[in-house]
Amino acid sequence: MEVFIPRETHPGESRVPMIPADVARLVGKGMGVTVETGMGVTCRHSDADYRESGAEIADDRTAALCRADMILRLRKPPLDEVKHLQPCCVHVSYLDPFNEPELVGELAACNITAISMEMIPRVTRAQKMDALSSQASLAGYVAVILAAERLDTIFPMMMTPAGTLAPARVFIIGAGVAGLQAIATAKRLGARVEAFDTRPVVAEQVESLGARFVKVDLGETGQTEGGYAKELTPEQQELQRQEMARVCMHSDVVITTAQLFGRPAPRILTREVVEQMKPGSVIVDLAVESGGNVEGSELDEVVEVNGVRIIGLANLPGRVAVHASQMYSANITALVEELWNDEAKGLNLDFEDEIVRGCVVTHDGKIVNQMLLDIMSKNG
Question: How far is CA 348 from the centre of its chain?
Answer without folding.
Answer: 27
